[in-house]
């Protein structure tokens, strides 16, 4: 029967494995296949190197058994002194000292001096380790001085002669830096001194110094010793962790505290401080909250814990823990109520009303005398339907004694009314009626105030101002009580604070004018004497809104009237007269018509044409027509018209763009508008070679910042497209 | 910023009442005058302001985290003589 032919493997493939240090595969392929295209000599060399490298790698990683297996395989194909020496070394590291002594006999007589010396060194050490402290002086003398001293030092050490050991180790001064460092490591182990470890320190020394067992040879002895030493190092490490926590250097795992510190009081204090460090150093607020919740029953003993919990809750958005708040503070107040100031209690009460379950919070707050806070939150802020005698008493009590927190809470009423004002157009008639009645009740409550602390003045007038502005949403003839009651309330506070009427806000002044003229006056935004960039900068500074929609009614308008007004307007411009004729005021009822919007743009274009246009012109024109500066439709029309006007008159188009930007009120500065402005800018810069001015750069940067932060999905496609276009044009 | 608990700075512990804060504060500033102990005096004044002044308190909550006093001493770890392990595991300081 013919011998089965071995499969072949290409030499280049083998070399590829060899050069990529894949020695195990190289050996495996040589065993399995016939290697094509490689001489026997070359193959032998590759095989030797592969075994040697494998052995070395296994030895260095601490796998002495595998290293020995590789070197045995190597010796099967080449039994040289060089490889026998490696086997001798491995025998020593495997702690097979008797075998090592026997195996070294031939090597000691090697003709290669280097190998001879290495073999003698290992032979002498194997003798010492196996308990034979008699040193063959003749062979010892053949070693370098550093190694001689090491052998002598080690013998003294095994004989427990400490002083002698150190003398010899001190004399042991090898040339190589790495070897010097290793001698120093041995000395520090003997002297129980702290020592720094680097990568060059031998695995055993490193293990004994810091417990790191990386690459330590895996022998029977090392396995036993590892268990002992690692647990000892772990214990010391925990102590060191606690030291770090006590000195406030870093937070540590809570398990270390509970295991290491037996005193319960100190244990809880450490957990408390640990939570603080997790907040301050790690900035891991969720973890801090988790720990607080887990240990709350013991942390509660500290008066500081209440504020700490509030601090954590303000840093993390977690609704799950809200459920625990009332229970926690119920127990907390039982323990610490007497120790707390009124403002601290108020602070806790406000926190509970904002974060915890409202009914149970109110019950707890009432139990601890927090009715004032409930009154401010649930009474005033909910816009009471009817003012009771008790409310008047409570309000007067609050107003007499200044409280920063109560003032801040009260000021929330102004913000709330402003929100209502912004949304009034979306409300039903019935909702509006209820609000009107509630506003009268609030005014009655405020008017009942006999005495108010000086520090409440700005807050009170802030609220009154918001109320005055809000009142203008109600038709005067049908809401006379609202206007007169509010005016009475304002007058009462003017008297209390002895104020000059000229210092009153424009909204309050407008309210008095309304009463005089017996008609409501819609609020308009003043932008007098502010240049475009000032307005733009103020807009950027306050940006925080995005979604806000308005709906407008559309009415018909007689185009003949408009033609006449336009004619008069132009005449006035030509003759340097006031163009804002009284005729324009009559357009009030029609001002959301498309026709009127186009008409206004025409008027503005004419003003520009006759060089009568300035920063405040548009504001004046809209003001006299009682059109709100925040009117979205108007601004939208401005944007649309830019392209149209640019074809006829680029200057007018630019003015319109500036108007569109500056007329956007604070509350209405959505990112969508920025996008529209940018698109218009791009059009003007690109098609009409207009310069990139400061405003353009400001809008662009702001828009990119907001969009990248908020990632409005609805705008993203347009945003990406816009950026691409800017890049294409070299504008970005 | 990490600061020591204002209660502990003033020495308030156990079952005290809010009204006691002023008393302990007065006692403390008598003991630590601004001339002889300016640092301790500043700490005490700061702690008192935090506990008695509403606006100072609100600002403090925003800016500060308070830690508690710890009164434990960590025993210095006994240094075990690990040199005996050199006898059991073979290692040489030289490259061989």
Number of strands of chain A: 2
The CATH class of the domain at 2-67 in chain B, by name, is Mainly Alpha
Cα-based radius of gyration of chain B, to the nearest Å:
25 Å
Please give the order of strands in the largest beta sheet of chain A. 1-2
Strand order of the largest sheet of chain B: 1-2
Tell me, what's the shape of chain A?
elongated
Question: Kindly state the mean pLDDT of chain B as a whole number?
Answer: 89
Class by SSE composition of chain B: mainly alpha
Any descriptors?
heterodimer; A: 732 residues; Serine Threonine Protein Phosphatase 5, Tetratricopeptide repeat; 38 helices; 69% helix; elongated; B: 96 residues; mainly alpha; two-stranded parallel sheet; 2 strands; 6% strand
Describe this structure in words.
- The complex is a heterodimer of chains A (732) and B (96).
- Chain A has helices spanning 11-19, 23-32, 40-60, 64-77, 81-93, 97-108, 113-129, 137-140, 145-158, 162-171, 177-190, 203-210, 220-246, 254-260, 264-282, 285-294, 296-299, 304-315, 322-336, 342-355, 358-367, 371-380, 389-400, 404-423, 429-447, 457-471, 480-496, 506-517, 532-541, 559-574, 582-585, 594-609, 617-624, 632-648, 650-662, 671-688, 694-710, 713-728; strands at residues 8-10, 34-36.
- Among the domains of chain A are: 11-156, Tetratricopeptide repeat domain (Serine Threonine Protein Phosphatase 5, Tetratricopeptide repeat, Alpha Horseshoe), CATH 1.25.40; 370-517, no CATH class; 532-728, no CATH class.
- Chain A has 732 residues and is mainly alpha-helical.
- Chain B is mostly helical.
- Chain B has a domain at 2-67: Helix Hairpins (Orthogonal Bundle), CATH 1.10.287.
- Chain B has helices at 6-9, 20-31, 38-52, 54-63, 85-88, and strands spanning 2-4, 65-67.
- Chain B has a two-stranded parallel sheet with strand order 1-2.
- In chain B, helix 2 (20-31) runs antiparallel to helix 3 (38-52) and helix 3 (38-52) packs across helix 4 (54-63).
- The longest helix of chain B has 15 residues, at 38-52.
- Chains A and B meet through helix 5, helix 7, helix 9, helix 11 and helix 12 of A and helix 4, strand 2 and helix 5 of B.
